[in-house]
Design brief:
Blueprint (H helix, E strand, L loop, with lengths): L1 H24 L6 E3 L22 E12 L13 E10 L4 E8 L4 E11 L2 E3 L6 E11 L11 E14 L2 E12 L7 E2 L3 E12 L4 E10 L4 E4 L2 E4 L4 E9 L2 E8 L6 H6 L11 E11 L5
Antiparallel strand pairs: 1-6, 2-3, 2-17, 3-4, 4-5, 5-7, 7-8, 8-9, 9-11, 10-13, 11-12, 12-15, 13-14, 15-16, 16-17
Length: 293
């Protein structure tokens, strides 16, 4: 049953992908220059960029967030605590990626399909932006108990980016998150939430770039702590991308510790501007499973 639900979550993206792929096949004979490397990584910070993995490429991703720096010296400013996500991303084609991962926060399993629908281009085919569609499903294992579809959530995003110059790229991310159920004993929120993300990358040296990412959630709810409910916060992430031999190491400051879309877009408990900031990083190791012709 769970596998069926995951598949149904991805059907809209897959159908859209087939249609747009046929459209672009008709343009292959034209003299068109496509924009490459709008971003250097498939991740902007917590969230995605428009980039997908190349065909037959497997990417092992390790995402790590420490505790809040406001925890003070006793917890070594957050370094004593950590949450992690391990994932495998695979390029089915140069424009279609699939992934499976696990986040230690709520012991969440997640999977997504990501398809680059349209590409920024000039020449015979002019298009101002790159558009990538993302469909994600997440299953929360914690608290331990019987399996239930109530633990499932789905996220649909359009990632729209433009490379304005070799060192400057900007992106917007309209987002819809659906939760199958809300536990009203610990959370006061809508099952259907809408957000708009903004982000960008500014290259400052040959190997270093600054990044920023913010998600404005229009339906933020509250979470219970002790005997009172406190508001969730919009997630903010500031980072430094360091290119090392074809790979990108990302050093981040963020108020989110959840590393799937449901968690960081709808359930961020910490306030970045009140000092609840987490140091983190993303690192990946890429394996080319088959030489592309």
């Amino acid at each position: 049953m769970k596998n069926l639900i995951f598949i149904l979550a991805f059907i809209p993206t897959t159908l859209f992908a087939q249609q747009t792929l046929l459209d672009e096949l008709n343009d292959q004979t034209n003299d068109t220059d496509y924009t490459f490397a709008t971003f250097k990584s498939t991740r902007l910070g917590n969230g995605h960029t428009v980039e997908t993995r190349n065909k037959n490429t497997l990417d092992f991703i390790f995402q790590h967030r420490f505790g809040s720096v406001s925890d003070g010296a006793y917890n070594l400013f957050g370094l004593d605590n950590a949450s992690v996500r391990l994932a495998l991303d695979y390029g089915i084609t140069d424009r279609l990626s699939v992934s499976i991962g696990r986040n230690s926060v709520d012991k969440t399993m997640d999977s997504f399909l990501k398809y680059k629908v349209l590409r920024q281009s000039s020449g015979a085919r002019n298009f101002p932006v790159t558009v990538t569609a993302l469909a994600n499903a997440a299953y929360r294992i914690s608290p331990k108990g019987n399996a239930s579809t109530d633990r499932l959530s789905y996220t649909y995003q359009l990632l729209i980016a433009r490379k304005f110059a070799p060192g400057l790229s900007l992106q917007i991310m309209p987002t819809y998150v659906h939760k199958n159920a809300i536990n009203t004993a610990v959370e006061l929120a809508s099952q259907d939430q809408f957000a708009l993300g903004f982000g960008g990358r500014l290259k400052v040296t040959r190997s270093i770039a600054l990044t920023a990412e913010y998600h404005a959630n229009f339906n933020l709810g509250d979470y219970k702590t002790g005997n009172e409910f406190l508001p969730y916060h919009n997630s903010l992430c500031l980072g430094i991308d360091i290119e090392t031999g074809g790979h990108v190491f990302q050093l981040l400051l963020t108020n989110a510790i959840g590393l799937n879309e449901r968690a960081y877009i709808t359930e961020t408990q910490d306030d970045f501007f009140n000092g609840s900031i987490h140091l983190g990083f993303n690192v990946s190791r890429i394996f080319e499973l088959k030489k592309n012709k």
